[in-house]
Structures are given as structure tokens and as C-alpha cells.
Amino acid sequence: MLYFPVDAQEENLNVFDRWIEWSDGNNMLMHHLNDQAFKLLDQRDSEIEGLTSKNDWISRQKKVNDILQNIVGPFPEKTPLNAKVTGIVKKDGFRIEKIIYESLPGLYVTAAMFIPESGSRSMPAVIQVSGHGFPAFRSAGTQRQLYNLVKKGFIVFAIDPLGQGERIQYWDDTKKASELGTSPTSEHSYFGNQMFLAGISPIRYFVWDGIRGVDYLLSRKEVDPDRIGIYGCSGGGTQTTFISAMDDRIKASVPGCYITGYRRLLESIGPQDAEQNVYHGILHGITHADMLELRAPKPLLVSSTTRDFFSIQGAVETFEEVKKAYKAFGMEENAGQVFDDAGHGFHGNITDIYAFFQNVFGIPGNPAELTFDGFAAKDLQVTETGQLSTSIGGKLAFDINKSESEILLARINESRKDLNNHIGSTERNAKILSGYVTPPEEVKSVFRGRYRRDGYSVEMYALDGEGEYVIPLLLFIPENMNRLPGYIYLHPDGKIADAAPGGKIEQLVKKGYIVAAPDVLGTGETSAAGSSSFYLSLMIGRSLPGIQAGDISRVVNFLKSRPDIDADRISAIAFEQMGPSLLHAAVFNRSLNTITLIGNLLSYRSVVMNKYYNTGLTRYFVAGALTAYDLPDLAASLAPAKLTIINPTDGNGEAVNSNDMDFEIIKASYAHKGALNKLNIETSLGDQAFKKFMEQTE
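^ that's the sequence the OP posted. Answer follows.
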């Protein structure tokens, strides 16, 4: 292979270029989170290895139940279902009842009940929960399953999950479709991400719909209360797993194409949409097996496909552990697993599911699948218009979370009345909830090279990060000057965003600053697309702002160790999404004496109080933050340090005015410290923001 020399001044500011150990930069964030998750799962697995007797497993079940009640629940008090039948359709040998019930006051659930006409007065009932498709139980495959089950003698209760069927949360009546995309996963994650800010696992409401569905079944004389089952595939497998784990009245459960275990999930595709992830779940040692073992020794059938994107190896390993629990109860035969050599979904193994319910509930007959061409659309339409939002209305998932968040925000406002105590508690709680880890004073680094420019040089470094990753860093140093003030420059697009000659960083350098532009984890050369990192971080008790705050502190410590920098004059500027990370860092590391935020998110309050928000901000959410603090509380904690906030935005990316309520705590804190002259808020500078910042820079 031939290598050709390049011009000495041709710049390549990529620190990872031609460095084997750092060649997987885009996965550094997920590897770092995975490493922590695996350690937590190792601890959990060690505990499982010590379980041998029935009493051991009963104690484990109690522990897991308590954990789930805390991190999925707590559930609300049961209120009247106010159930009504909106229509009845007679079919050959069965009828379809269209049903609406309220799982919470004003939160309507649309469902259809398929009832055999020739059965006894007390028949077994199977709940069907749908996977990720907007039609929900109206999809062709599911209709065939419903038809087969009712023809085999089962009452079948099919429920529309949130964001599916006739419960689309962001319905566009002009387009007759969801505003958010082609899959309900977009809906689930959209309202689910808001819920996480309040410390709520969105699966809570899917589970509660199912629990109240059982309540409805038990109100029907046709249903045998001792013979209730549940099944579902994919997203329906998720719901099946959680509902049957948390409702003891369900006697038989078939989760399909979901079970794999968090370890294999994290090794492969990573965490999926919001309702599949539980706030602090892995932190508390919970994985898929725990929810199945919680049911032991009740009948269980795990349906898996060998070419699923959910790891089949994980499904096998999980079931091997689950069998140990059933064996300890002396009922190993109650747990089974079936496979199909197919991709994601119910395929040839659907007959195994029919046979399972027939065997468990004592329904004789042939489990072979009957052919079925499908129902007419009107047969399965529960509401007058085909959508709750355009028929009877009712509450959305957003409305429920808004009410929950209002309670939390009221507590924060009450805490703010005692300013001194509130500021202290904000710092303590923010450290815990963001998962901040205080870095060491000494920061190791690798020098990667230097470029000369007109009047300054650009040096390239890789700083040791919190774990096995490194932080790419560019250091812009004016020539022939010593003991200069330092500026940390944070941009969501990373260190190169404004690094070109004549760019914004150069303007700071020309003013006599040494400027450090890092790729904190998750940006620049370590950027990671998608929401997996957000979901995994909240499951292990971490957050991207907390981790990045640690990286920023490492950059601070690196600068303080250099003889050419005045350690008492280090400042930082953050643009847009980097605002939350810098706020956390500045509170936890008081070495920063001037902080500037341009175009930053002003508050998490503005996210949860509005139906719509900018999804680009999601990675910078701190799950659970609103249980104790908001971003303005961090800003308030900085007093009396110099703080400039320019062009702040709300959760939807819209400009806020200077009288926005979120500024009140900041102004109050600076006034309390006698430092209002060090607080500068500019809300309408537009594209003149950086120019204004430069004018104010000493």
C-alpha cells in the first residue's frame, strides 16, 4: 500500500483518525452504559445463583414485586369503570361486543369482546394485547387469532393499547393518521419521554389498562374468574409480561417475541421504545426473567422465533433460569417455551398457543388454525368516528402525565420558598438523579498533534473519560502568551462545529482566551444516534447530562493543570442542547466562574406542560428530575457566579420572553446573593446572540 504526503497545513481535526483503540467512537456511549448495566446484572445474577429452595424463590418474588410496585407503580385507586357496550355484532356461533371503559377517570379504553354463543355460563377468557401496529387487534393476523380462539370456546377480550387502534394520542383528522409517524412506537416514546421526566415508567398506564380490563372481565357473568389468560406479541408481549407479572388474577400467560433478557438486548439492538423500559429497572436488578419468575408456578408459555431481532440466545437463557424457579415449586411442567424458525411475530407456533390455553383451561378440541378472511371494518369499530379523540374525547396520556407533573412542580415551588435549603437540596438531588460521578483531579491525556494557524495553534488531545472511553479535545492557544484565561466551548455538534479558521472559536482566541472544545460523550466523534442511550441511562440511574457534566469537569481539571492557563479564570459557553449538561457541571464544579448559555432549553417544566416538544432534546432529559428540581433551580444555584442566558427556548424550541415564570427562581437567588449585576438575560437577540456574547466578554 502506498502513502502519499499531504500539505503540512492540511487539517484533520479528528482525534480518532487512524487510532485502532478508538475506532468505534459512535458506540462509545452505549459501551460505557452497557458496562455499567452488565455490572448491575452481574450482581443480580449472583443473587439468583444462590436461590435453591421454594422459600428462596418466594422471598425473591416478594422482593421483585415490591420493586415493581415502586418503579412501575404505584398504581392509583380504582375508580368506577363506567363501562358501556357501544354495539353488538352477531356472527356464526359467537357475538362481538364493542366496549369502552375508563381505566382512570376520563381515560377511555376501547376494546372488543368475542363471546361464544354455545358455551357455558362460566367460560375461560383470554385477554389479547396488540403489538406495534396502528390497527391493533384489527390487523389481519390478529383477527384470525381472535376468530380461532372464540371458535375454540374462549371469550376473547381485545384491548386497544395507548397510541393504537382507536386510541391514537396525536390524531390528525385531516390525514386520518397519527401526526407522529408510521408506527405507534413514535407515539409511545413521545408521551413516554415526558413521563420519564416525572420519574414515571410509561408502562404503568399500559399495565393499568390491563388490570382494569381484568376488573371488567370479572364483572361479566359469562367469565370464569379462575380461568383468565393473556397473550400478545412484540409490544403485546411486553404488555403481557408486565400485566401478568403485576396481576395475580391472570392464571395463564403467553408473551411472544419480547422475552430475551436485558443483557442480550443491550449486546444487540439496545433498548427500544419508551414503554419497554422501566425507570431504574436495571439499577434495582430487574430483567425479563424476574417478571416471569414472579408468576411461578402459574402456567407460562414463552413464544420465541429464532430469527427475531430480540436475541434468541437471550430468550433461551432467560427460560433456562425461569425453569429453575418452577422446578423449586415442584411444577416445572407449568413452564414451556416454543420456537419457530421465522422472523419477528406469531407464525407457525400460533397453534402451540391455542393448544396451551386449551390444555390449561380444559377446553377440548383441535388446536389447528382455522382459515379466516377477516371481519368487516365496521364490525370492530368501537366508537362512532373510529377514534376516541373525534367521538367522545377524553383524556390523553399527556393529560394524565401533566396532572402528575403539576403535583411535582407544586412541590418544587413550595421548596423554593426556603431558598437556602432549596439551593442545597437541588445540588444534592441533581447529583443523584443525573447520576453524576465526581472525576479525579488528575486527568490523563494523549497528545495527538498540532496545527499552526495565523496567530494561534490548534492542539489535539484525547482525555481519559469516566470509563473506557476518551474525550476528543481541541485546544486553541494564542501564540507567545502565558497565564491566559480559559474558555470551554460546548456545541451539540461537537468540537469541529465552530472550529474553522475565522469561526466563532477563533474570535474568542483572538480576544486572548485559550479555548477548549471537547467532544463530550455522545457528541462529535463520540456521537450516537437514536434514543437507546437515553432509555438505558434511565434504567441504570444515569443520564447524558450527568455523564457529560463529568466530562466537562474533566476538561476543567485538565485546563487547571496547564501552566499556560490561569486556573482562577475558566469560563464555559454552551449552545442549544448542551445547556443542561453545562448547568449540571457548573453546579457540581465551582471552578467555572462565568457561564453562558445560548439557545438552551429553559426548563423541563415547559416540556411536560405542553403536548408537543422538540424530540431533539430528549437525550438531554434527566429522568426523574422533576421529583426534586428543574433546570432553573440549577441556574439559581450558580449565584453569585456570572451567568448569561441568551435566547432561551421552551420545550418546543420556541423563544421565551423575559417574564417567563421559569426565570423567577433564578432572579430571586441572584437577588438573595446581592448579585443581580452578574445575571444577564437576553431573550430576543435572534442571530445576533453570539455577537452580543462577544461584546460582553472581557
